[in-house]
């Protein structure tokens, strides 16, 4: 019954938070108004700025922010105990993550859809704009490289997910055309799309399709990464309504309906027990410790700070500020929709992380095939989570969630084959929507970085002349050309993903060494976004007390985790990155910390100047 109580309690807590704290932020702090003209209407161009219904934007936003982070992170973090992981997800998402996403969305909408990095130059200093954009380029390059590899790994683990994921692409184009061009009501296309996607899961691995899936799953990792980055390039340069927006929307239909199935299956398992095994139903119970007593024996890293950067996206994620200010702010047609999209999406992602935790610590106990043995209860937990080293690999983390979630579905009479196929599609789809959104966001960031370089080149000209020349240069320069910027982003990500794990190893085997960087840089980016939101609100004379602690927390904790790994001991090892000779991680880590320190110094200087009534720009 503990599992059911946690699920029901999380649902109630998130509903209350949305209708109290979220409502207070929207009405009393940000003072959202239906009368304000949204950037999507003011700057409508049919490509990036496209006024869209909030339901469709919610689908795009939720699937873009909820990649594999809220699955992989919690699936590993439960090793410290399910209780600290659960508490961080619940309260972190309500008071930090959702505030961060909501704030970034509102700030961007109030600044003509600019990204947080660009806004940093307006509210702190032009140098901070450049520094922030450099950090964004680093962070998004890692996201593109990692998620390209993640999708390739998922396809290898679950070949049956390949055909359903491929079918989503032409389906999205069709939906985008009929809804945007023909103005059809979204209800009927939504129902048809959902039906087609579930049929593709049911019949997508039968006969010749099974051979097709197996053939593609056997392709080298870097072949898959190349295909995925080419797709991301196409999705990034096309008008947003053709592929990115409708694909994210129809994905959200399947993903949210699958979440609903998981909840129903969890409640059924809690009431009736798991699917019968030799005629006997295994009771649903939490088989993991609330707080792990054998931290040394299992070789776990320090719970503080590493629990917080391991879970990452399930509680707060800096990547979300890019989605909020990079794409969603350019598509919302009404300012009051921002709470539903910004605050509501993060709470939904938090609930996803709660389900992941329960799937790993309770669902796993309903049955796990381990080698030639079938285990249940605590034996299943001990086999899956015997030590940090055995659980930290991507396949191990994904398998823990997929197995536990599939056990929930089997309680409803759904076959294990269909359940695992559906969960494979679930994981791959989340990763894919994050990948193509990240590529588009990286294109915006590189274009803005090119714009900064143009500004520096023309800074000696007089103000009227500089304004005219800068606008012309931005439109014609190769530094801001969307195709060149996107290709550059994809090439950098491809190079990062292609790194071998060691001399003589094949390309792509070492790309996942970037994963330890992802959690720390991602959280650090959240702290820097909070810093920009804080200064914007201060300039607008809004209350800032409620984001002061999250800002400080998110600036210190990730930096601590990064420096600890660089100089003392990396996650899962007794050696630091320097001692291991992982120089790429060392260079990126130290460079990011130095950029953060520089940004903070600039912000302190801005604070002093604005406090003394002088401008900081």
Task: Explain this structure.
With 617 residues, the protein is mainly alpha-helical. 71% of the residues lie in helices and 1% in strands. The chain contains 25 helices and 2 strands. The protein has a two-stranded antiparallel ribbon. The chain starts with a helix and ends in a 6-residue tail after the last helix. The model has no long low-confidence stretch (mean pLDDT 89).
What are the SSEs and their pairings?
Blueprint: H1 2-29, H2 39-42, H3 54-65, H4 69-77, H5 82-109, H6 116-123, H7 126-157, H8 162-181, H9 187-203, H10 208-217, H11 221-237, H12 244-272, H13 303-311, H14 319-326, H15 338-361, E1 368-370, E2 373-375, H16 377-384, H17 388-391, H18 394-410, H19 416-457, H20 463-476, H21 482-497, H22 515-539, H23 545-567, H24 577-580, H25 583-611
Antiparallel strand pairs: 1-2
């Amino acid at each position: 019954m503990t599992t059911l109580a946690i699920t029901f309690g999380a649902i109630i807590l998130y509903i209350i938070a949305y209708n109290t704290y979220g409502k207070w932020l929207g009405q009393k702090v940000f003072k959202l108004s239906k009368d304000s003209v949204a950037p999507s209407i003011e700057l409508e161009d049919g490509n990036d700025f496209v006024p869209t219904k909030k339901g469709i934007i919610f689908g795009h936003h939720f699937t873009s922010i909820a990649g594999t982070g809220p699955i992989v992170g919690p699936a590993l973090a439960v090793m410290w105990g399910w209780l600290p992981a659960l508490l961080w997800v619940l309260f972190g998402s309500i008071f930090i993550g959702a505030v961060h996403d909501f704030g970034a969305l509102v700030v961007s909408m109030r600044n003509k859809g600019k990204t947080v990095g660009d806004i940093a130059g307006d509210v702190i200093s032009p140098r901070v704009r450049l520094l922030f954009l450099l950090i964004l380029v680093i962070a998004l390059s890692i996201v593109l490289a990692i998620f390209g590899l993640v999708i390739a790994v998922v396809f290898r683990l679950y070949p049956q997910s390949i055909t359903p994921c491929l079918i989503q692409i032409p389906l999205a184009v069709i939906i985008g055309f009929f809804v945007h061009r023909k103005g059809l009501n979204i209800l009927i296309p939504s129902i048809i799309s959902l039906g087609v996607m579930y049929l593709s899961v049911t019949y997508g691995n039968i006969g010749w399709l099974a051979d097709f899936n197996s053939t593609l799953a056997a392709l080298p990792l870097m072949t898959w990464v190349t295909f995925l980055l080419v797709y991301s390039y196409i999705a990034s340069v096309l008008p947003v309504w053709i592929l990115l927006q409708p694909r994210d929307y129809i994905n959200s239909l399947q993903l949210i309906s699958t979440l609903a199935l998981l909840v129903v299956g969890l409640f059924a398992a809690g009431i009736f027990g798991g699917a019968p095994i030799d005629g006997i139903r295994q009771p649903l119970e939490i088989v993991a410790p609330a707080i792990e007593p054998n931290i040394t024996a299992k070789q776990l890293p320090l719970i503080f700070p590493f629990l917080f950067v391991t879970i990452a996206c399930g509680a707060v994620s800096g990547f979300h500020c890019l989605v909020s200010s990079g794409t969603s702010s350019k598509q919302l047609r009404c300012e009051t929709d921002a709470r539903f999209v910004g605050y509501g999406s993060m709470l939904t992602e938090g609930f996803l992380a709660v389900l992941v935790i329960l799937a790993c610590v309770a669902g796993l106990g309903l049955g796990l095939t381990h080698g030639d043995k079938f285990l249940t209860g605590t034996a299943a937990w001990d086999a899956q989570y015997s030590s940090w080293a055995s659980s930290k690999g991507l396949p191990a983390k994904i398998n823990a969630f997929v197995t536990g979630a599939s056990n929930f579905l089997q309680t409803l009479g759904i076959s294990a084959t269909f359940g695992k196929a559906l969960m494979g599609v679930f994981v791959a789809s989340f990763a894919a929507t994050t990948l193509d959104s990240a590529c588009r966001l990286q294109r915006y960031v590189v274009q803005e970085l090119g714009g900064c370089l143009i500004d520096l080149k023309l800074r000696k000209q007089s103000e009227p002349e500089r304004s005219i020349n800068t606008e012309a240069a931005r439109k014609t320069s190769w530094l801001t050309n969307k195709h060149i910027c996107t290709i550059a982003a994809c090439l950098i990500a491809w190079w990062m993903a292609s790194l071998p794990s060691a001399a003589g190893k094949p390309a792509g085997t070492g790309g996942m060494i970037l994963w330890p960087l992802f959690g720390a840089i991602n959280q650090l980016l959240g702290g820097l976004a909070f810093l920009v939101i804080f200064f914007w609100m201060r300039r607008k004379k809004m209350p800032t007390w409620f984001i002061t602690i999250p800002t400080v927390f998110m600036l210190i904790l990730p930096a601590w985790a990064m420096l600890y790994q660089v100089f003392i001991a990396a996650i899962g090892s007794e050696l630091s990155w320097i001692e291991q000779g992982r120089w790429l991680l060392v260079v990126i880590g130290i460079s990011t910390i130095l950029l953060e320190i520089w940004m903070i110094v600039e912000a302190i200087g801005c604070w002093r100047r604005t406090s003394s009534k002088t401008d900081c720009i």
